[in-house]
Amino acid sequence: MTNRTVRLTAAQALIAYLSKQYSVADGQRRRLVPAALGIFGHGNVAGLGQALDQLSDALPFIQGRNEQALVHVATGFAKASRRRATLAVTASIGPGALNMVTGAATATVNRLPVLLLPGDTYATRRQGPVLQQLQHPTEADATVNDAFRPVARFFDRITRPEQLLTALPAAMRVLTDPVDAGAVVLALPQDIQSHAYDYPEAFFAERDWAIRRPLPDPEEVDAVARLLAEAEKPLIIAGGGVVYADATQELEDLAATAGIPVAETFAGKGAVQRRDWWQLGGIGLEGTPAVNELAREADLILTVGSRLTDFATASQSLFQNPDVRFASINVDAQDAGRLGATGIVADGKRALAALAEAVRRAGITSSPDWRERVRTRNEQWQAERAAAVDPDTPYDTSELPEDSDVVSNTGAVLTQGQVIGVLQEHARAGDIIIAAAGGPPGDLQKVWDATEGRFAHLEFGFSCMGYELPAAIGVRLANPDPTKRVISLLGDGTFLMAPTELVTAAQESLPITVVIPENHGYQVIHRLQMLRSGREFGNEFRYRNGSLDLGGELADAKPARLDGDYLQVDLVRVAAGLGARALRATSADELRAALADTRDHDGPVVIVVPAIPHADLPGAGVWWDVAPAEVSEQEAVVRLRAEYEDGLATQRWFG
Fold this sequence. Notes:
With 655 residues, this protein is of the alpha/beta class. It is built from 25 helices and 23 strands. Helix 3 packs across helix 19 and helix 8 (218-230) packs across helix 14 (348-362). It is globular and about 70 Å long. The N and C termini lie far apart (54 Å). The mean pLDDT is 95.
């Protein structure tokens, strides 16, 4: 062991260290953090900025436009890399750092590793108070970066250069841990970034971090196998853990061997790649009505790699069989025990393989009646689905409210479901479609065929508006093959909130495609609002029908509301101004042509498609615990509250 040292600043040491870290999984070795993204300010330009410049050959730097979006880029990259690699993101102190908090929460909730390097206020304090210092009246050491603590899986503030010797290995451990993965935050005081230390040379040697695959306990496997043997109507729910564990083949083997139908959560969309009678699709609030009917009847629910949030369980109202029992496979013991399940705490790939072997040895299979029931109901849904997404059959506008002006005022002829139908026609093996908040992820969960390599990347753990476009950049960085299309499907509300990373995509010549069904509002929340209050308020993009008086001069007048005509916003020109090749497609044939003409474009593409507002896909047929007002002077609210309270009776406790 040599005692040789090298004198580096803390920032230089951090970048040099990151450039030597590797993940190893299933015999594949790759850079754990192959690049950094960021925006420089006074809190990181002299320290990290200088280090990234000096070591740019070892760790490339990507310039961004919004710090939150850059964290989403890293999260999308990590998800597309199946948690085997991520990106580092740096921001300046104060508002730049705080912009990353939402992105950090998104990564942590989705159990995806990201490395965040926010600048922090001076550790030496002789300069203070300094620009963007919080100056808390009773906690002198508090800075805005303390806001990261509740949303990070690992947090440390580096107040001495030598602290990196222990902080960095601890950070790498969390980034590569399938149980603890999430946002890792190293707050870097501005002055400490530039302070030097004599680091051991050995600290900068290449290091491998194995992605662990814990083996299943044979007794736990046998316990779950016994439950499967006793079940008449078993159902598997596949979550994102199946995808991250590369366990698709093992899941399909178990389903085919035992004749068990498989439903998928948002994160688990595409966990099954093989088309077969037991491949069902989405479950829960935005799942298919067929899956939800079968879930109500199931007497055994086996979850794999899922937390079973309220969207999947319909707020604990979905599983109605009086004798239903639960089993689970999860690498996290806490998640394995959800709903009082009999759990196998292990890596999903290894646990599924062991369970399939136990099932095979015991000759366990579901009943012929259950298999026939699943086939019949799923075939019925497939016919209903095909009609709902058929872009060549005009939508029946008689389904809309009688006083609706949405068709005459928007010029739209396609529904969002029909837009998805065209995208489905266009999708090839290897293509990836991305969605997050609003209507797109729910619609994709319900009708997108994510088998045979037509992948879906749905962020619905945090349902974060603004994730979709930057995530497409992250997905493209992880999948550079230009023959595989990366499509981000997002509403006009989300696009208007955060379009600026189009500039980053243009700067880097990244071929991503953004498809915007323009439905003039936050329409998925409008739908919920109508179901819970019966009246539209503040969710559609309309002009105020009169003046807005905040000065009290018209105190006796009724305040003007946002109930005028739809806003006129030229999204095509906005996108073109940000560097994208931008098109507008109104009909199905125009959308087909736009997709075909731009598949090989070597930069960002934006296609705006007018979509008929309030035209929804068939409902999932489940209840959701979102309470209308308990008291109200509005008759509709009183009625809806009574319906809600009826729904409360369907909730069950599973312990």
